[in-house]
Amino acid sequence: MKLTFFGRLRDAVGAGEIDCSIPANVGDSEALRAWIGEQYPALLDASVRIAIDDVVSSGPVPIAGVAEAAFLPPVSGG
């Protein structure tokens, strides 16, 4: 699966994207956050949203067969 990172998360991870094999016990977007967050704690912030195949969701989304998960920092503006 391709994981992409935007804004400050790109800096926290040190890359805009990584390709990785997801363990079998990681079945949804929140489990994915917990798993990758072990290595990159900035991704554990509750304000970070996850888009699964270009769809942002507010709850856990199954990731079986998914091509991409994008981690999105909170948006600020004025």
User: How are the strands of the biggest sheet laid out side by side?
Assistant: 2-1-5-3-4
Helix content: 10-25%
Order of helices and strands: EHEHEEE
* Structural class determined from secondary elements: alpha+beta
Q: How many domains, as an integer?
A: 1
Indicate the CATH architecture: Roll
Query: How far is the first residue's CA from the last residue's CA?
Result: 35 Å
Number of helices: 2
By CATH, the topology is Ubiquitin-like (UB roll)
> In CATH, what is the class?
Alpha Beta
Please mark out the parts with pLDDT under 50 across 5 or more consecutive residues, or reply none: none
The CATH superfamily appears as Beta-grasp domain
Give me the Rg, rounded: 12 Å
Strand segment tally: 5
Average pLDDT confidence is 93
Main beta sheet strand tally, sense and closure: 5 strands, mixed
Shape: globular
> Strand share of the residues?
15-25%
List keywords for this structure.
2 helices, Ubiquitin-like (UB roll), 19% helix, five-stranded mixed beta sheet, 78 residues, 5 strands, alpha+beta
Overview of the molecule:
The protein has 78 residues and is of the alpha+beta class. It has one domain (2-72): Beta-grasp domain (Ubiquitin-like (UB roll)), CATH 3.10.20.30. 19% of the residues lie in helices and 23% in strands. It has a five-stranded mixed sheet with strand order 2-1-5-3-4. Strand 3 and strand 4 form a beta hairpin. The radius of gyration is 12 Å and the shape is globular. It starts with a strand and ends in a 6-residue tail after the last strand. 15% of the residues are buried. The model has no long low-confidence stretch (mean pLDDT 93).
